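User: Design a sequence. Structure:
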């Protein structure tokens, strides 16, 4: 296992982190807790969870494991998270921290995230006087929290804007071998600022393991595309910890082996993947965000197009897309939308700026049909 300093915090963290969002929910909490103990025995010392993960059982599962890991408390690091939209006062933020501490059976959360910042107004809400950040600062002074960090889906320039204010010790960002050309600016900026950089979603939400044949170009000699995708994040010098959502011991073994081997992608490998992604995945939205300001109706085009990516990549039918849309409305990329797909007036402004030249208007029509079905039950 590789261990690195988490920014300037003094914490030495493992290159592979345990992501607590993919437990097997058919198992008991006690059975799932054993997976955390196993991960610790393999050298993993960074454990990431949040309220609501795995039908809101993840923190409880962690709590069972933490009780058993108490003797080694100083040797591992635990995270949790709170969203500023939900905990919009200092008092509510503190109550959220106290609730997580209780569930986790801990006296301190080492890294607490201002969670899921998708827009600048959400960041501003967290930082307002008497808001979440102020509550977290007080928790930090009292030792309930070790470090305040941020988790965000913002584009690079806005991440730079936030980091310039020097309010956070680290950052959690979604990045993987398929989307890195469009996410790297934020990663590099955080690394250059001397922060801890934690990567989530290294397997693109399961898309990479499910499409090994189409993604064969990712793999080097004697490895699968999934192993290559893990290796890409785990061995990147700019990334401090790569979170992997573990379900089985075998997955832990694979990720730890890759960390032991520590073979970074060469510049030639990176260029090969970059070229292949941009040449052969032209029908996919890359999340570049160039369309963000183009829409007079304030439709979150990129978010809708990212959901549509799954239809293209996984060849999903209408029934499966309805389930995807429901998930994204309840919890995912569409939860904070300002306008629905059906508000499109077909002005064409987004298609004029789309770097991938996607037929956005046609796709929005399909999406609007799914949204109508959802609304009509
Ligand atoms: S075509 Fe539709 S989605 Fe695109 S900018 Fe115009 S109104 Fe917005
Ligand atoms: S400009 Fe095109 S590729 Fe970029 S985010 Fe918007 S829809 Fe996606």
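Assistant: Done.
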């Amino acid at each position: 296992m590789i261990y690195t300093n988490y920014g300037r915090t003094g914490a030495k963290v493992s290159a592979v982190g345990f992501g607590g969002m993919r437990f097997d929910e058919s198992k008991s909490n006690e059975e799932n807790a054993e997976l955390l103990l196993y991960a610790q025995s393999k050298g993993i010392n960074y454990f990431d969870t949040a309220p609501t993960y795995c039908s809101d059982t993840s923190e409880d599962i962690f709590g069972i494991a933490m009780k058993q890991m108490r003797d080694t408390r100083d040797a591992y690091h635990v995270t949790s998270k709170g969203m500023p939209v939900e905990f919009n006062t200092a008092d509510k933020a503190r109550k959220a921290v106290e609730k997580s501490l209780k569930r986790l059976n801990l006296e301190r959360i080492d890294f607490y995230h201002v969670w899921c910042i998708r827009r600048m107004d959400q960041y501003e809400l967290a930082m307002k006087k008497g808001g979440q950040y102020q509550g977290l600062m007080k928790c930090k002074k009292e030792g309930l929290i070790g470090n305040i960090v941020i988790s965000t889906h913002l584009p690079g320039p806005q991440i730079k804007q936030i980091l310039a204010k020097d309010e956070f010790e680290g950052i959690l960002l979604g990045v993987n071998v398929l989307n890195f050309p469009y996410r790297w600016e934020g990663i590099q900026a955080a690394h250059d600022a001397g922060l801890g950089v934690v990567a989530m979603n290294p397997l693109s939400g399961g898309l990479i393991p499910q499409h090994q044949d189409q993604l064969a170009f990712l793999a080097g000699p004697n490895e699968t595309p999934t192993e290559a995708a893990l290796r890409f994040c785990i061995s990147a010098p700019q990334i401090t910890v790569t979170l992997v959502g573990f379900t089985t011991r075998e997955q832990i073994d694979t990720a730890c082996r890759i960390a032991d081997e520590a073979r970074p992608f060469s510049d030639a490998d990176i260029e090969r993947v970059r070229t292949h992604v941009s040449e052969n995945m032209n029908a996919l939205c890359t999340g570049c965000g160039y369309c963000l300001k183009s829409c007079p109706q304030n439709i979150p085009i990129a978010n809708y197009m990212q959901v549509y990516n799954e239809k293209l990549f996984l060849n999903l039918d209408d029934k499966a897309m309805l389930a995807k849309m429901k998930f994204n409305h309840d919890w995912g990329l569409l939860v904070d939308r300002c306008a629905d797909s059906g508000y499109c007036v077909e002005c064409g402004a987004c298609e004029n700026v789309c770097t991938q030249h996607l037929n956005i208007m046609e796709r929005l029509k399909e999406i609007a049909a799914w949204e109508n079905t959802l609304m009509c039950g």
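The beta strands are 3-5, 12-14, 16-19, 46-48, 77-82, 109-117, 145-152, 170-174, 196-200, 241-245. The chain has a mean pLDDT of 90.
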